[in-house]
Prior knowledge:
The protein is of the alpha/beta class. It contains six helices and 22 strands.
Amino acid sequence: MKPAELKSRWPPRCRSDISPFGMTAERLKDFRGIPFPQAVKDRKFSESDFSFLDAQGTWIESCVFERCVFRKGDFKNFHDHRNVFVDCQFVECNFSGAALGFFTSRYECCVFEKCRFTRTIFSNAVFKHTKFLDVKIRDIDFNASGFWDCKITGVLNDVWFKGTYQFPELEQHVPVESGLHNVNFEAASLGWITVSNGCVLEDLALPNDAALLDVAHLLRDFESSVGQYFDHNERSKIQRYLEIHPHIKNDQVRTIVTLTELVESYGEPLAARFFDHLVSEFGVRDDGKPMRQGVISASTGKG
């Protein structure tokens, strides 16, 4: 059936817990095309197909979704509060303007593939064993969300990860399990990755043009190190690095630098040399040891 035919089967803003359309060919409960009501609360769905779902503007709270499929679902301006999603697939879904993870929502063993996150707002969404595949995430603040044992491919540019809320005194909730833990970014294109407010970074697999830096060492020795390796004209440009990145503060143990942001700030070939310098002087491995040996060259991609 075509998407329009699937949607036309349902009355507006349907509240059905049981599908009158039986099972799909994949033996999932057939909720394809269903328009969710304005609010869905304290419900549980399992082994269901919600492809072409209309959840635009829906407030979903304290619900559980297990082994569900959401293909080309409309989640624009959707509100996610205290929900649990387990083994769910989101394929080509639109989360534009959605608010995810308020008062902690959990996504475990899920897949987000080719989903749209334009102007999406995150609070404390906790993702575990979850994959984000071929996504394009730009200008997004993940706030105090947590990523545990995840894989991310695609593009992440101008995104922010925090260990807690920017203004915790204004929030009515204490975030849990925030930070980046055993996250694989190797097949992702990264640029302008901001981390702050005590965001934990551990066991990260980064692409060759991104690296972890020791913040305390960077703040202490940046100016003196630049003076040793760059001429006057180069120093006048790159000494503004900490001004351009005001989030690099002592509340962080580590931060992330990407070649992309350096190229956009300083141009080639200075950016490649500066990247190699930062990694050589201030880069750290996940065991906490400095990366003074075997630095990956941003200009050649080789060690």
